[in-house]
Design brief:
This protein is mostly beta strands. The protein has three helices and twelve strands. It has a ten-stranded antiparallel beta sheet, with helices on one face. It is globular, with a radius of gyration of 20 Å. The two termini are about 35 Å apart. The relative contact order is 0.12.
Length: about 210
């Protein structure tokens, strides 16, 4: 639904589109190396408004959400995206719930407890800021990050993480032995240089 003001330049284009039936699994297969999870993850549906004015393509309205709140993964994204073909600007708010520990293990390689949280992402012409609050089991985490950059690359990086209470077993960092099976996450870090440890723990995610 919409209109195109000028067929030659596409100026004054205004289109509203609705979509449904998007598979979160397809997205995760793209983002996560060797993603292996058997259960259905539900469907995503949403709405967006696409504008073209003053030579810029913008999405002033974007909403995406899981159709069912009871699926192993619930995701909700709302916000706006501007200057899609130039200096990309974004203001996005997300909410997520991951109820199945097996899905968290498929994503991170760690046996974490169910997690839920919110994230806000804002980008300007020379910076990106991210604020996140997450609850994993009984552990509360808050993270605040900002990256400044120019044409040459990153010029400044600030990251602050805090927790009012931290439980290693919530994060999948507590060794455990059940019957003949032993779970020892520290083994994943053995014989790895310190600067490479982040990629070992979170290396399954293509971030």
């Amino acid at each position: 639904i919409g209109q195109v003001g000028n067929l030659l330049t596409l100026e004054d284009t205004h289109i509203t589109a609705q979509f449904s039936g998007v598979e979160p699994r397809d997205v995760l297969f793209t983002l996560v190396d060797d993603f292996d999870y058997a259960r259905p993850l539900g469907k995503l549906a949403g709405r967006l408004v696409l504008d073209h004015a003053m030579a810029d393509w913008n999405i002033p309205t974007l909403t995406v959400a899981s159709v069912e709140d009871s699926d192993p993964l619930f995701l909700q994204v709302e916000g706006s995206l501007y200057n899609l073909t130039g200096l990309f600007l974004a203001d996005l708010n997300t909410r997520f719930k991951i109820r199945d520990p097996a899905l968290l293990e498929a994503l991170t390689g760690l046996r974490m407890n169910p997690a839920e949280g919110t994230t806000r992402i804002r980008s300007a012409s020379n910076s990106v800021s991210i604020q996140n609050t997450t609850r994993i089991g009984e552990t509360n985490l808050a993270a605040d990050a900002k990256v400044d950059f120019d044409a040459e690359g990153i010029t400044d990086l600030n990251l602050a993480v805090s927790s009012s209470q931290l439980h290693l077993d919530d994060l999948g960092l507590q060794a455990d032995r059940k019957g003949a099976e032993t779970y020892n996450p520290s083994e994943r870090l053995e014989d790895v240089e310190p600067e490479d440890r982040k990629s070992v723990v979170y290396g399954k995610c293509g971030v």
